[in-house]
Structures are given as C-alpha cells and as structure tokens.
Design brief:
One of its GO terms (biological process) is xylan biosynthetic process. It comes from Noccaea caerulescens. By secondary structure, the protein is of the alpha/beta class. It contains 6 helices and 6 strands. The strands form 2 sheets. It has a 4-stranded mixed sheet, with helices on one face. Strands 1-2 form a two-stranded parallel sheet. Helix 5 packs parallel to helix 6.
C-alpha cells in the first residue's frame, strides 16, 4: 500500500518493536524500517509537557535535533530522518495506550520540529493517529498547533506545518 501511495517517493518506518521490523523485512525486503528506542513513558506526559512547552531550547528550529537539549527531541534516529525534507510525516507509533508505554510525546514533538526545518516557504503534512487519547490530543495541539490543523477524521488529525527554518521559537510562540 505504501509503495503505491508514495510511488517514486521514499517511505521509511520507525518503530519500537524490533520483532515487527524483522517480520516486515522478511515479508517486504524493499521496505525501509528502523528500530527506535524511546526514553519516555506515558505516565510522565504531563511533566514532560510542563518541562518543555515554554523552554527556549525546545523552540530552536535552527538547532540540530541530534544535539538539542530539549528532553523531547529524538536524538538517535537514522541520519536520513534529520536531513530529508519530508512532504508527509505519519505519527502512529510508538505504543501509547498504557502508563508504562513510551507514548508519542517525543514522536509528535520531533515530527513538528522536522516539519519546521524544511526549506523556507515549504509545508509538511503531519498526521497523528489516536488523537482520542489524552497524550496524542494534547501534544499534537501543543507542538503541531491548533491553527495548523487542516482536518480531523475520527481518531486521525492532519496538520499542515509551515517552515520556520530561519526562526527560533520559544515554546510559547511555537504556535501562531
């Protein structure tokens, strides 16, 4: 399905479940997928929001996420994630339905910052699944911005995030 939807484009999967990655690689050897280790827990979501939303280091679009001091920045992703100018980012992982799960806090924040780092004038479509859950709802509105919400269908939200590459944003100014 992904190959047909993104014909001629590049699609990669990032997942916390190594066994899924191995299974999918055997079934679809051309599918590009990478294992990601998350350092967050759903139970800490409120503390993470409070600790990052208004922090200057979490709004610096010019800072490379790999060296960011923001606790939500995913720093260990494959280099291609940071250097590719993505047209679309889908956040549907990691697991987020129980307190001990990693949750999608870092994935949503990182997707928003990657979208903001695109070339000036470009936009990135960012989709977040399971927005009926508190973490996905709150973090998507905080870091992808209510004003950038394009559409919501059921549990799926679509944001159109503009480039802010040449601007540093404090958390409170991340959204218009």
């Amino acid at each position: 399905m992904w190959a047909s939807l993104n014909h001629g484009g590049r699609t990669i999967f990032l997942d916390e479940d190594e066994s899924w990655i191995h299974q999918i690689a055997e079934k679809f050897p051309s599918l590009e997928s990478y294992h990601v280790r998350y350092e967050t827990k759903v139970r800490d979501a409120a503390d993470l929001m409070a600790a990052t939303r208004d922090r200057d280091e979490c709004g610096r679009v010019t800072t490379d996420l790999r060296v960011s001091k923001c606790v939500l920045a995913l720093k260990g992703l494959p280099e291609t994630v940071y250097v590719t100018e993505w047209d679309l980012i889908m956040v549907d992982a990691p697991t987020g339905f129980h307190d001990e799960a990693p949750g999608r806090m870092s994935a949503i924040y990182t997707a928003g910052m990657i979208a903001r780092r695109r070339r000036k004038g470009e936009t990135t479509a960012v989709f977040v699944h399971d927005v009926d859950r508190k973490v996905e709802d709150g973090f998507s509105m905080a870091f992808l911005c209510r004003d950038y919400l394009t559409e919501q269908q059921g549990r799926l939200r679509h944001f159109t995030v503009p480039s802010r590459r040449n601007q540093d944003l404090s958390g409170s100014k991340m959204c218009p």
